[in-house]
């Protein structure tokens, strides 16, 4: 794993008084003298210190989530450690297999949890409970990242003074056991007030803490507890009137494809519900995703099989305020748009001409960068100034809706699940029996109620596919459809494939793909065969790769 040096010239702005909470050298993780934490002001420094430690996990979250998937691959220019991750050949000496940063976060969470005094009461309100729950969720989220990385975790709930020497004394839990343990640990705290300390260094602190309902929903979805997952996703959506908005769409402006509106890039940071944030000071630690991806010699690139799949998707053109599909084109514009003259308009990825070469590069990370014109990166010819990452989105609005669709589909409601993609969950959609048959709604669960959401009005909701397949996708009656299927199970499997395609288009390269493939494989009782078939497509000898990846142990780091 490379460590990079960024060169900074004169003219840097001085840090504000709050920015040091994003300094990864911060020592304010827990109270150094061992005293009880009895005031929210003290817990702020404790929580921010833990968040600073978690920053080291951000780049790994993205790379380990994508390089074990089917959307990204490592190039020959990547270092051997990164290539080994992409090739499922990680050894024990690979720094990506180092557990210390994870356990350091966990241990400091345990120290803080031991010292927070949850017995303090103001009238009937437990004053310190929100801080306690937030730190507990950060710890459990870190446990879950370890489970998704290594397949097993030593589960520790007590602070340890000598971490490495005592780890072996604690029980090792596999990923299924960890999912249930974390559900049992956090469910009693549902409904606890979420933390919000305002803005720090230009970042809203409310987005830095684990959204408890969404985390629990993901755990239930992994365990195939579909009703529980759907209810938790809905319980997050409804009070916030969270919607998939039309504004983050890439569209051709005319039926000659001479000009496009490229707005989807804004959703990468504009829809963040949970993120890792980094200092505005370029001298502090930042992930190297921009250097790895947007470079004359990139280390990570879009998998050609993914780019090909995106290019074959049908785009449905409808003039503004039109009611029918006026033209059909090829290509999902959430990848890239190529106009009739051959000009490339990048979205998640796109072509850069550099030194006489046309390079297909990942652009998505550039949308969360900060530019410092007084600095430069000597190892990146693609960027003449210094660009560095300030934010890594971990959960965005489309994650919530697409995973809700995943749960609804497995509950035997494929038309409602498909409506998340094509029409949007709105009052208009759910009262149209041609779009969602009434029998799918007859069970009457609370998570089926979207009477508050509309196609037009204050709470607009559109289908996720609208963001890259054109304004006319909802008017299409022949192409983007479930079609006649022999059985309900067949319909469920067809829609599941469409959901997985939408997850790729909407959330490519963000660190989710391995988890997406793992869940879908488990829903089908085809782990790791289903994931192996998908991931093998990015290898030159796909059949040999598929056969090799049937060995489940290869999917986990040692």
Report on this structure.
This protein is of the alpha+beta class. The protein has 19 helices and 22 strands. The model is unreliable at 2-33 (pLDDT under 50).
Helix content: 25-40%
Number of strands: 22
Tell me the strand order in the biggest sheet: 1-20
Q: Any idea what the shape is?
A: globular
Number of helices: 19
Secondary-structure content class: alpha+beta
**CATH architecture level-2 label of the domain at 24-195:** Alpha Horseshoe
Question: Which CATH top level class of the domain at 24-195 fits?
Answer: Mainly Alpha
Multimeric organization: single chain
The major beta sheet can be summarized as: 2 strands, antiparallel
N- to C-terminal separation? 16 Å
Beta-strand proportion: 5-15%
Show unreliable segments. Answer: 2-33
Entry summary:
This protein is an alpha+beta fold and 558 residues long. The protein has 19 helices and 22 strands.
Comma- or semicolon-separated keywords:
558 residues, alpha+beta, Serine Threonine Protein Phosphatase 5, Tetratricopeptide repeat, two-stranded antiparallel ribbon
Summarize the SSE layout with pairings.
Blueprint: E1 7-8, H1 40-54, H2 58-66, E2 72-74, H3 80-86, H4 100-115, E3 121-122, E4 125-126, H5 129-150, E5 152-154, H6 163-166, E6 172-174, H7 175-186, E7 199-200, E8 203-204, H8 212-222, H9 226-240, E9 250-252, E10 260-262, H10 267-270, E11 272-277, H11 289-293, E12 300-302, H12 304-312, E13 314-317, E14 327-330, E15 336-338, E16 344-346, E17 349-354, E18 357-362, E19 369-372, E20 375-376, E21 386-389, E22 391-396, H13 397-410, H14 414-422, H15 427-430, H16 488-507, H17 513-523, H18 529-535, H19 542-548
Helix pairs in contact: 1-4, 1-5, 4-5, 5-7, 7-8, 8-9, 9-13, 13-14, 13-16, 14-16, 16-17, 17-18, 18-19
């Amino acid at each position: 794993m490379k460590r990079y040096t960024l060169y900074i010239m004169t003219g840097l702005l001085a840090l504000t008084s709050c920015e040091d909470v994003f300094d990864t050298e911060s020592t304010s993780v827990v109270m150094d003298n061992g005293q009880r934490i009895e005031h929210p002001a003290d817990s702020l420094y404790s929580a921010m210190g833990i968040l600073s430690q978690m920053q080291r996990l951000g780049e790994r979250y993205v790379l380990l989530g994508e390089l074990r998937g089917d959307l990204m691959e490592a190039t020959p220019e990547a270092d051997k450690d990164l290539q080994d991750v992409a090739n499922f050949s990680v050894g024990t000496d690979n720094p990506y297999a180092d557990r210390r940063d994870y356990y350091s976060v966990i241990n400091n969470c345990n120290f803080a949890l031991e010292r927070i005094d949850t017995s303090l009461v103001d009238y009937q309100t437990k004053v310190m409970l929100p801080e306690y729950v937030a730190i507990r969720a950060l710890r459990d989220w870190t446990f879950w990242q370890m489970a998704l990385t290594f397949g097993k975790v030593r589960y520790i709930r007590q602070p340890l003074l000598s971490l490495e020497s005592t780890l072996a004394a604690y029980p090792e839990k596999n990923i299924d056991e960890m999912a249930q343990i974390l559900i049992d640990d956090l469910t009693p705290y549902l409904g606890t007030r979420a933390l919000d300390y305002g803005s720090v260094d230009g970042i809203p602190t409310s987005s830095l803490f684990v959204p408890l309902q969404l985390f629990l929903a993901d755990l239930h979805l992994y365990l195939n507890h579909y009703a529980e997952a759907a209810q938790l996703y809905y319980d997050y959506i409804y009070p916030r009137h969270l919607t998939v908005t039309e504004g983050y769409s890439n569209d051709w402006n005319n039926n000659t494809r001479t000009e496009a509106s490229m707005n989807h890039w804004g959703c990468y940071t504009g829809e963040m519900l949970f993120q890792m944030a980094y200092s505005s000071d370029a001298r502090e630690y930042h992930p190297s995703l921009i250097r790895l991806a947007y470079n004359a010699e990139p280390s990570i690139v879009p998998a050609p099989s993914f780019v090909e799949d995106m290019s074959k998707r049908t785009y449905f053109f409808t003039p503004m305020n039109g009611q029918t599909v006026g033209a059909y084109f090829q290509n999902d514009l959430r990848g890239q748009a190529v106009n009739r003259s051959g000009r490339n308009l990048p979205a998640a990825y796109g072509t850069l001409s550099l030194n006489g070469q046309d390079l297909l590069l990942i652009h998505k990370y550039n949308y969360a960068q900060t530019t410092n014109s007084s600095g430069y990166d000597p190892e990146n010819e693609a960027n003449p100034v210094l660009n560095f990452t300030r934010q890594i989105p971990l959960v965005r609005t489309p994650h919530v809706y697409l995973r809700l669709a995943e749960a609804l589909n497995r509950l035997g409601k494929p038309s409602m699940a498909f409506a998340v993609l094509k029409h949007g969950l709105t009052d208009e959609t759910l009262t149209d029996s041609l779009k969602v048959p009434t029998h799918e709604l007859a069970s009457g669960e609370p998570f089926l109620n979207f009477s508050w959401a509309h196609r037009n009005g204050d709470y607009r909701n559109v289908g996720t596919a609208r963001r890259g397949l054109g304004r006319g996708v909802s008017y299409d009656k022949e192409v983007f459809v479930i079609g006649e299927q022999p059985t309900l199970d067949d319909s469920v499997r067809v829609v599941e494939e469409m959901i997985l395609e939408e997850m790729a288009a909407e959330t490519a390269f963000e660190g989710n793909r391995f988890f997406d493939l793992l869940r879908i494989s488990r829903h089908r009782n085809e782990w790791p065969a289903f994931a192996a078939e998908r991931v093998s497509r990015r290898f030159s000898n796909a059949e040999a790769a598929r056969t090799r990846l049937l060995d489940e142990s290869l999917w986990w780091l040692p």
